[in-house]
Design a protein that fits this description.
This is Solute-binding protein family 3/N-terminal domain-containing protein. This protein folds into two domains: 120 residues, D-Maltodextrin-Binding Protein, domain 2 (3-Layer(aba) Sandwich), CATH 3.40.190; 97 residues, D-Maltodextrin-Binding Protein, domain 2. Helix content is 29%, strand content 29%. Strands 6, 7, 8, 11 and 12 form a five-stranded antiparallel beta sheet that branches. Strands 2-3-4 form a three-stranded antiparallel beta sheet. A two-stranded parallel ribbon has the order 1-5. It is elongated and about 55 Å long.
C-alpha cells in the first residue's frame, strides 16, 4: 500500500537521505503494516504533489486532516489515527498576557489578532470568522508575533517543534490550556484497489489502533 507524505513537515513527516521519517510514518508502519498485515511503502513529496497523487490514484493513501476537498477524492476512516492537541502562545512581553492566559476556547480569540500560515488546513477551517493574518510559511510566524503585529498563534506539535528549533523559547510563551485538537485520519484514494477492502480495514483500525485521547501517540496505543 503506497503512502505519500509531506516531505518537510517535521516532526510529523520529512525526507532524510531518501527515506521518509516521522510520527505519521511510524503510525502507518504500526497500524497498517504490523497490525493489519498490509505491506506499506512511504514516499515524501511537496504537499501539493502528494495530495495530487492520492487524488489521481498514483498513490493509495495519506494520513491527514480530512477537509471537504480531500473527502471528495478519498474514503475516510470513521476514527482518527492520531489526535494532536493545540496550544495557544503569545510573546512574553505582551501587555495583555494575563488576559490571554485565561483564553480556553476558540471563540474567545475574536478580540485578538491571530497569525497563522497558509496551508494550515485546521486553521483555515476553524478560524474563518477570526481576525487572522495569513503568512506564506511557518518560519515567518514567530518574528511576526514577536514584533507585536499579532497577539497570538495557535501551536500544533509541528509549530512547537519549529519554535524550539529556531530558538524562540525566551521570547514566546506557550500557555498551558489545551485550546482544541486536530484529528488525522487514514484517507484512501477512491482510485486505489485498497478502497474495496475498506469495509474490512475500517473497523479493524477503529477497534485496534485508534488513540483514545488527544496527544496519545502510536507507542501508547
Amino acid at each position: 500500500m503506497r503512502f505519500v507524505y509531506y516531505d518537510d513537515y517535521r516532526p510529523r513527516s520529512w525526507s532524510e537521505n531518501g527515506t521518509v521519517r516521522g510520527i505519521l510514518v511510524d503510525i502507518v508502519d504500526e497500524a497498517v503494516g504490523k497490525r493489519l498485515g498490509i505491506p506499506v511503502s512511504h514516499l515524501g513529496y511537496p504537499w501539493k504533489r502528494a495530495q495530487e497523487m492520492v487524488k489521481t490514484g498514483l498513490a493509495d493513501a495519506f494520513v491527514t486532516l480530512p477537509t471537504q476537498e480531500r473527502r471528495s477524492y478519498t474514503v475516510v476512516g470513521n476514527e482518527p489515527i492520531i489526535v494532536f492537541t493545540l496550544k495557544l502562545a503569545t510573546r512574553r512581553n505582551h501587555p495583555r498576557i494575563s488576559e490571554i492566559e485565561q483564553i480556553a476556547t476558540i471563540e474567545q480569540l475574536k478580540d485578538y489578532k491571530v497569525v497563522d500560515y497558509l496551508g494550515d488546513g485546521w486553521a483555515q477551517q476553524h478560524l474563518k470568522n477570526m481576525n487572522v493574518h495569513w503568512l506564506s510559511d511557518i518560519d515567518s510566524i514567530f518574528p511576526f508575533l514577536i514584533q507585536g503585529r499579532a497577539d497570538v498563534v495557535i501551536l500544533s506539535n509541528r509549530t512547537i517543534f519549529e519554535m524550539h528549533r529556531q530558538g524562540y523559547d525566551p521570547l514566546i510563551k506557550i500557555l498551558p490550556n489545551n485550546l482544541s485538537s486536530v484529528s488525522f485520519y487514514l484517507c484512501v484514494s477512491k482510485h486505489s484497489s485498497y478502497k474495496d477492502e475498506w469495509s474490512r480495514l475500517n473497523p479493524l483500525i477503529s477497534r485496534q489502533v485508534v488513540p483514545k485521547a488527544p496527544g496519545r501517540s502510536w507507542t501508547s496505543i
